[in-house]
Amino acid sequence: MSDKRRRRVPRQVREQQIIDMAVQVFAKRGYHPASVDEIAELAGISKPMVYLYLDSKEGLFLACLRREAERLATAFQKAARGVGSPEMRLWAGLSAFFAYVTEHRDSWVVLHRQTSELSEAITEEVARARRAVMAEVAGLVRDGIAEAAGPVRPGDEEADFVAHVLVGAADSLTDWMERHPGETPDRVARRLMNMVWVGMRNVLGGELWEPPEPPHAPEGPEAPDAPHAPDVPGPPSVEG
Amino acid sequence: MSDKRRRRVPRQVREQQIIDMAVQVFAKRGYHPASVDEIAELAGISKPMVYLYLDSKEGLFLACLRREAERLATAFQKAARGVGSPEMRLWAGLSAFFAYVTEHRDSWVVLHRQTSELSEAITEEVARARRAVMAEVAGLVRDGIAEAAGPVRPGDEEADFVAHVLVGAADSLTDWMERHPGETPDRVARRLMNMVWVGMRNVLGGELWEPPEPPHAPEGPEAPDAPHAPDVPGPPSVEG
DNA sequence: CTCACTTCTTACTTAGGAGTAAGTTTACTG
DNA sequence: CAGTAAACTTACTCCTAAGTAAGAAGTGAG
């Protein structure tokens, strides 16, 4: 804006700028519809620079993946380290994960849902199908809990939460099953029920799991309220 | 095979053949890298036919999505209907889901992971990152359980199962959070812990959830052993 | 100043694939 | 055996976007 002529910038810095913009564009458009020209322009640079520094479109995307995966992993690990019991560490890690993907939505989209590659109509179709499944599962959850525990009065929001857990877990277990051909769907479903059924009642009753007393550290130096979440780690300081 | 010259075939049938092949190709290559020419050729037909019947590449893909989503939903619903309590219905539905995606992998890939759109190297990178996360979470799970419940001896396979549930649920809750901006990551993480922590012990102890006695149906007409899972519904008989 | 090195640009080439115009063959119908 | 409608083909057009060749301009060292 202020500087009319574009300042020359050392390679390391320019690379990060390119990756910054690439993450945005890949998140918005998806891999194939994203054009290197657009990324270059947003980075205030011309296309051949991108090829000089990152080799190819694929190289560029790989660089994005690596950097963003590293940042997310770091956020998780940093949070999970330090606190005492594994239970606490897991909780802190999860919390940091959710915080990170909230802050850095683009990053998450690039790492995860490459569905945005598809056109509006197609994305909508996918979303609609998923929503239908969620609604169905949430309904079952609500009925089941109402029947089992009488007075709990599951709210819609909470049943929806449980439905997301179930559907997400089911998605993910699909991969797990590929590496365990001996397992039958029946057994997998039983295991999932086993793992989740009791907890559903708690969640739907509005209970919140509370971190237990840290067994080895009698009093922590941390603030008593928020665990670690707000201090989302910034990028591991790449720019000089 | 036997007929040398290509037999003419009515539109309804040909459409289904095209969609059959499209599902395969989209699953293998992903949306953009898939070429309509290839799909047409596999369907034993030339490209303009595809455009005549399905309008566009997008229309073709939408047709695939609709048909496959419908089949999967039907599989779930058919299984969930009939059995008594919601708990049972949920279990039967999950079981049918896992059975369906095992049988119809292409279908699932098209509905779910459009990541195969990306090149070999990129897919590998994504898979690697995910595996790393899984390993980390599985480690925490193992430690946590070992500490909490002394003698349970969580096997690698079981810890891995729990890790998949957690990571998949976390993935999915990302979407849920978007529609609940008031929720903090901290609260979401607590809820997830609440829902899952107790169940982890059971799963890692090797326990399997057993379907309870159906409260309203004293004796079902079904076979007592398998619920509904093996009778995966075939396509809802589209071809005339 | 000038040599050498890095940053950066303009202006291409090229390939692949979506979509179409126009015509051809098969098969049923009276 | 027409005649007609549906099934089907060949042979294109055209556009987008990846990737590159060749050189210009800023920058620091002697």
From TrEMBL, chains A, B:
Keyword Magnesium included in the entry's annotation: no
Ranges of biased composition (kind: Pro residues): 230-240
Start and end residues of each stretch annotated as Disordered: 208-240
Domain of life: Bacteria
Residue span, HTH tetR-type domain: 12-72
Record bears the keyword Cell membrane: no
A Pfam family it matches: TetR_N
Record PROSITE patterns: HTH_TETR_2
Organism the protein comes from: Streptomyces glaucosporus
Gene3D superfamilies: Tetracycline Repressor, domain 2 (1.10.357.10)
DNA-binding region ranges: 35-54
Regions that span the bilayer: none
Protein name (Swiss-Prot/TrEMBL): TetR/AcrR family transcriptional regulator
Alphabetically ordered keywords of this record: DNA-binding, Transcription, Transcription regulation
